[in-house]
Amino acid sequence: MPWKHWSSERLGLTFALLAALGFSFKAIFVKLAYAVPQAVPVDSVTLLALRMAFSMPFFVWVGWRASSALQPLRPRDGLLVLALGLLGYYGASILDFMGLQYISASLERLILFTYPTLTIVISVLFLGKTASRREIGALLLSYAGIGLAFAHDLQLAGDTRAVLIGAGFVFGSAVSYAFYQAGSEPAIQRLGAARFTALALLVSTLASLGHFAATQPLGALVQPVPVYLHALAMAIFSTVLPVFMTSAAIRRIGASKTALIGTLGPMLTIFFSCWLLDEPLSWWQIGGAALVLAGVLLISRRKTAPTLQAKTGSSPCGESAGSSQK
C-alpha cells in the first residue's frame, strides 16, 4: 500500500516498530562481526570506529541541513553537546561493544534496557527529584528481571568471571546513556531534535575515530569483507535509520506510544539471538525479559497525563525515551 494512503498514526506506529527492530539488531551485528573467522578477531574499538565512520556522512548532511538556517552554537550549548555526545554515543557504545565480547546478546539487551529506570535514579541523586512508588516498583521489577537473565548466563557460562566483566561493561553503558538521556532534554529544547542528535553523533564519531587512532595501528582497519558488511549494516539499519524513524514516530504518535513500542526491543533481540546466533533460550530469560519490560512499561505509563499537563514536568528521558539508539 502506498505511503500516502496511510494515516499519520498508522505510519507513526510502523516507524516505531521498524526502529525497535533496527535497534534490536545492533547486538546481533556486533556478535556476528566478532564471530568472523580470522587469526585475530576484530576488537571493540575498531568495530565501533567502522560503525561510526559509515554513519558519519548521514549525520554530517543532517547536521548541515538542520544548522544552516540557525544561529551558531553558543559556547555553553557547544560544551553541552560535546559532553552529551561523549556520554551517549561514544562512551555508552564503546562500553557496550566491550561487554558483548563476554556475554550473550540477550543479556546485553536486557541490561542495556534499564536506562529509563537508571535515568530516574540519576534524577533523584543529582537533579533533586523524588521517586514515586510506581518508579520504585519499576526499578525493582527491572532489576529482578536482570537477575533472572544474569543467573541463566552464569549457569551456562564456563567462565563466571567473563560474564561478570561483560555485565559490568554493559551496565556501565546503560549508566552512561542514562546520563545522556537526563541531560538531552534541555539541549533538545534549545537546539531542536534533529540538530542536537546530528551534532551529538558527530562528536561521538570523532571521539570513536580518535580513540582508534590513539590505541590501534592503522592496519587494524584491514578486516575481512564480512566484518565491513556487518559494520555497514549496523551503521545503516541499527543506527541511522532507527534514529530518524524514532523521530518520525514521535512526531506522529508522541513519545509515550513510541516508548511503549520500543519495549519490544529486548524480546526481538532474544528471538534473533536464538535464531541467528544459536544462543540458548530458557524460561529464565523469558521471565527476566517480562520483568524488565514490565518495569519499563510502568515508567512509560507515568509519562502520559502529568507530562502533557505541566510545562516543566516532562520526563528526564526526553522525547527520545523510546529509543535505545546507541
Automatic annotation (TrEMBL):
Origin superkingdom: Bacteria
Membrane topology: Multi-pass membrane protein
A Pfam entry, by short name: EamA
Stored SUPFAM superfamilies: Multidrug resistance efflux transporter EmrE
Subcellular location: Cell membrane
Protein keywords: Cell membrane, Membrane, Transmembrane, Transmembrane helix
Gene Ontology CC: plasma membrane
Coiled-coil spans in chain: none
Location of the EamA domain: 11-149, 165-300
Chain ranges passing through the membrane: 45-67, 79-104, 110-127, 139-156, 162-180, 192-213, 225-246, 258-277, 283-300
Chief location of this protein within or outside the cell: membrane
Name used for this protein in its record: Threonine/homoserine efflux transporter RhtA
Native source organism of the sequence: Paenacidovorax caeni
